[in-house]
Structure formats: structure tokens, C-alpha cells
Write a structure and sequence with these properties.
Helix content: under 10%
Distance between the termini: 43 Å
Strand order of the largest sheet: 1-28-27-26-25
Number of strands: 31
Largest sheet: 5 strands, mixed
CATH architecture of one domain: 7 Propeller
Radius of gyration: 20 Å
Oligomer: single chain
Structural class: mainly beta
CATH class of one domain: Mainly Beta
Strand content: over 45%
Length: 322
């Protein structure tokens, strides 16, 4: 009888070890000039926008940093000078997209930076409370305002092609598919919406995965993930139409999916660590520890490498397998 018990204990311990998360510490650290609000990873570069108003480009391999520009200071509502915070950034084919504070009643500016020249595309005079902006291609951008209105903007023609409300609730985040033909939108209602970029038509509504405001979404390889105020990290398979969620211990401010959809990452813990699950079975595989502050972004470079930013000046680079 004792022998059977020992065998059972050994089996349970072995099973636990198989599914126990491996602790991972940062492989590399990239230092910015202030808290990092957004990062984009592309073509071997990490492009960051900071609270200081700086656009910084890091070479991922060498860690070499170059401050491309720092936006001029702006006046707040009291008339005091303050940094023009960069909220979101993007990069494509030598062009940089900057979405920043305007200092005018919660309205925003969108700039294009190319070959050392800064050009304003959308100004505060448009009276738009823009929350996020991304390139669709080098000549078109998609941005969203607080009221969940999506805008498609033509850069050469200097005009908005369309503006369409895709939800009646407050907007929080969107994420483009790799093809940039579809986007998933999350907001205060907790409902996720898959939207066609060219027509702004809602292709699918994903309900019941979240009970409250969705903070962050990701979209890769037919998989959608989201994190929210309800402390849930959700996932949904577009092909099968099935989804579920992981219950976290803290508000889930960031999530990401690896390019091939093998892994899904969430900020689930109050210590700002990142939990990486293997999507097949949603087994917890890695626990990334060392982030200093609340996360603002998680980006996969490939199936083995992640980059993350937070409300401090340090961007972490992680290797799942060294």
C-alpha cells in the first residue's frame, strides 16, 4: 500500500514539474529617458514613446539607443509648461507615427516623422480625443477616439476616408492582425469586436469573456487575447469560435500573442511579472520576473523573444529559452 502511495506522489510531483512555470529574468535592459508609454518592435528595432515626449529607437541586437526627437513642451490648462507626452508610436518603412498630448482639453495630435522632419497630420483643432493610432500601410493610418469611433486617414491626400462608431461604449485598445486587414477593438463594455479595416464593418462580436472594461488586446495567428479590469486574461480562437479566460490576481493591463500563436502572455500578477501560457492546453510555461512598474506593453519579437515596457524608463528583453 505504501509503495502505491509513493508511486502516486512521485507521479503527481512529476506532473507538477511538467506544468510548473519556469522563472525567467531579463535577458537585456534598454534604458529610455522617462516612463515608456508604448513600444513597437519591427525590423530588428524597438521604437519607444515616452512621458518626456521622446521618440527613441533601440537596436535590439546591440541595445544601442538613438533619440530621434523630443517634442517641444506644451502648456497645460493652467498655462504651465509640461512635456508633450507620447502616448502611442508606430514604425513602417522608415516612417514613424507619433500620437501625443496636445495640452488642450484632452485632445490629441498625430504626427508623421520621416527623414528628420516632423509633420502634423491631426491637430487638437480637430477636437478629437484620440486614444491610439497605428499604420495600416505607409500611406494610411487607423486611429480611434474615446467614443470607439474608428478613423481611416489617407496621408498623401491629407483626409479622413471614413469615421465610424463600432461600439456604444468607451474605447480602450485595438490591435491589428498581421495582414492589417482586420482589427480587434476592446472597450468599457467588455465585448471584443473584430472589424474590417477598409469598411469598418463589425465582422464578429465576442461576448461573455469579460465583465468590465478591457484594457489591452492582441491579435495574431487567428487568436485574440485580452486583459481587463475584471482581472481576467481571455483568449479566443477565430477558427473554432471557442474562448475562455484565466483569472489573474491584478488588473490585466497588458497581453501579447507570439507570431505563430504558440504562446500568450499576460500581466496577471501584482508584482508586475508576465505569465506566458502555451496556447495548446493553456498550460503556464514561463513566469517573467523583474519588471519594475505596471506594464504598458508586451510585444513578441518571435516565438522565443519578448520585449516589455512599463511606467518607468526600463524596457525589458526576455528570452524564453537561452
Amino acid at each position: 500500500m505504501k509503495k502505491k502511495i509513493y508511486i502516486l506522489i512521485a507521479f503527481l510531483l512529476a506532473t507538477f514539474n511538467i506544468f510548473a512555470a519556469e522563472i525567467v529574468t531579463p535577458y537585456k535592459q534598454l534604458v529610455a529617458d522617462d516612463a515608456v508609454n508604448d513600444i513597437v518592435v519591427r525590423d530588428g528595432l524597438v521604437v519607444a514613446g515616452t512621458e518626456h515626449g521622446s521618440l527613441i529607437r533601440f537596436e535590439l541586437a546591440s541595445g544601442k539607443a538613438q533619440t530621434l526627437l523630443t517634442l517641444p513642451k506644451i502648456k497645460d490648462f493652467m498655462g504651465d509648461m509640461m512635456n508633450d507626452k507620447i502616448f502611442t508610436v508606430d514604425y513602417i518603412e522608415g516612417r514613424y507615427l507619433i500620437h501625443s498630448d496636445s495640452g488642450e482639453g484632452g485632445f490629441s495630435d498625430i504626427y508623421l516623422f520621416e527623414e528628420g522632419k516632423l509633420k502634423k497630420l491631426i491637430g487638437a483643432d480637430s477636437r478629437l480625443a484620440i486614444i491610439k493610432a497605428r499604420f495600416i500601410d505607409k500611406d494610411h493610418i487607423l486611429f480611434a477616439d474615446l467614443g470607439s469611433v474608428l478613423y481611416l486617414y489617407d496621408i498623401p491626400k491629407k483626409k479622413i476616408i471614413f469615421s465610424k462608431a463600432v461600439s456604444g461604449s468607451k474605447f480602450s485598445d485595438f490591435a491589428l492582425r498581421k495582414s492589417r486587414k482586420q482589427v480587434v477593438v476592446g472597450g468599457e463594455s467588455g465585448v471584443l469586436r473584430v472589424v474590417d479595416v477598409k469598411s469598418a464593418k463589425v465582422l464578429r462580436k465576442i461576448e461573455k469573456l469579460h465583465l468590465d472594461n478591457v484594457f489591452s488586446v492582441a491579435f495574431s495567428a487567428d487568436i485574440i487575447s485580452a486583459g481587463g479590469q475584471d482581472r481576467r486574461g481571455s483568449y479566443y480562437d477565430l477558427k473554432s469560435g471557442r474562448g475562455d479566460y484565466i483569472k489573474g490576481k491584478f488588473l490585466v493591463y497588458a497581453t501579447a500573442i507570439s507570431p505563430k500563436g504558440k504562446y500568450i502572455a499576460y500581466a496577471l500578477e501584482p508584482d508586475n511579472s508576465i505569465t506566458v501560457f502555451e496556447r495548446d492546453g493553456m498550460h503556464k510555461r514561463y513566469l517573467l520576473k523583474g519588471q519594475k512598474s505596471i506594464l504598458t506593453a508586451i510585444r513578441f519579437v518571435d516565438e522565443n523573444t519578448l520585449v516589455s515596457s512599463s511606467h518607468d524608463d526600463t524596457i525589458m528583453v526576455w528570452k524564453l529559452k537561452k
